[in-house]
Amino acid sequence: MKTLKDLGDLKGKRVLVRADFNVPLDGTTITDDGRIKAALPTIKTLREEGAKVILMAHLGRPKGKVVPELSLAPVAARLGELLGIEVPLAKDTYGEDAQAKVAAMNDGDVVLLENVRFNPEETSKDPAVRAPYAKKIAALGEVFVSDGFGVVHRAQGSNYDVAADLPAAAGLLVEKEVKALSKATENPERPFTVVLGGSKVSDKLGVIENLLDKANRLVIGGGMVFTFLKAKGYEVGTSLLEEDQLDKVKGYIETAEKNGVELVLPTDIVVNAGFPAGDTPVAPEVVAADAIPADKMGLDIGPESQKLFHDKIVDSKTVVWNGPMGVFEIPEFAAGTKAVAQGLVDATAAGAFTIVGGGDSASAVRNLGFPEDGFSHISTGGGASLEFLEGKELPGLKVLE
């Protein structure tokens, strides 16, 4: 994979950078600017080298239409604050305004192009549709830097086709992500523990399959755990359950046993009358994992499991965590996710290499107030880090080779 060093002298050059600024918004307020901050090292390095930095990114899913609520204006404003300069936002991605703003740039200036997904061609599955569109974007720059790790698992116009049109390299963020995830999957220090949560087991099938012969220990929580508990013959009440995955999960339990992989499931669960919304009050109670009442819904791992999961994590040299343990947005069901995050922090302090695998886990550690430097690496790409852990070839990385 080519990196910034391979691009040579960038002074005065127009450098197109694909970043990942897909941040959560409350109206026009950014509620978590982690992804913007993650792009700063690459932007600052390019500015120091005297490049003209032309940033492009997407926000939300406008489905190829101009959706004013999904404009990158709040991102341009926040980026300007973080860099201490004005970051103009072009009104389009490659049209007249983008061309005019790029033409007016001086060395070290930064311009942000409007949401690439306002263009239907950006996410087209047909390369013949994407290619001419990508050429229009490529015409704005002289070299391309891929720094949006959150999109490298997709072949899209602004991260894949543009890379084929210009001299291309990975930015510092993508380079850092690949190094960290490779360290965990290629030759991990052992014991190697993988902690998986989140709502659906079907989202994590590939990861489980790929890691059943690599990990020493698989720790399972979140909504996906109820399919495992059901596969063991337990009652799971009204908890989230994927009936169609039961046979697969039974197979995983057998494979884990055969491969000598320790499969850690919760021993107790925090249940509620249902998902707390509308008329359903928050009235948590703790029950044994094999004794969930038929009319109750599991929403977090219980106190005994919190200690168990924490201790298993601390007893590891490499830890990868993807997916919360419960409905962490509601304080009464956040303790499981906190216990896992604390386990990673304690393991890191004891010298382990720890990765928080993007998506919900990354926003959970930030929202629950954990310091980012308490972990070895917090990934910026949920889907991308999952596919990397699955051992899949990611098109956005392949094109940089």
Automatic annotation (TrEMBL):
Catalytic activity: (2R)-3-phosphoglycerate + ATP = (2R)-3-phospho-glyceroyl phosphate + ADP
EC number, as in UniProt: 2.7.2.3
Binding site for substrate: D20, F21, N22, R35, H58, L59, G60, R61, R117, R154
UniProt GO MF annotations: ADP binding; ATP binding; phosphoglycerate kinase activity
Residues the entry annotates as binding (2R)-3-phosphoglycerate: R35, R117, R154
Binding-site residues, ATP: K204, G298, E329, G358, G359, D360, S361
One GO cellular component term noted in the UniProt record for this chain: cytosol
Alphabetic keyword roster: ATP-binding, Cytoplasm, Glycolysis, Kinase, Nucleotide-binding, Transferase
Assembly and oligomerization: Monomer.
Location relative to the cell: Cytoplasm
Pathway noted in the entry: Carbohydrate degradation; glycolysis; pyruvate from D-glyceraldehyde 3-phosphate: step 2/5
Family according to the record: Belongs to the phosphoglycerate kinase family.
PANTHER family membership: PHOSPHOGLYCERATE KINASE (PTHR11406), PHOSPHOGLYCERATE KINASE 1, CHLOROPLASTIC-RELATED (PTHR11406:SF23)
Domain of life: Bacteria
Pfam families noted in UniProt: PGK (PF00162)
GO BP field: gluconeogenesis; glycolytic process
Coiled-coil region(s): none
Listed name of the protein: Phosphoglycerate kinase
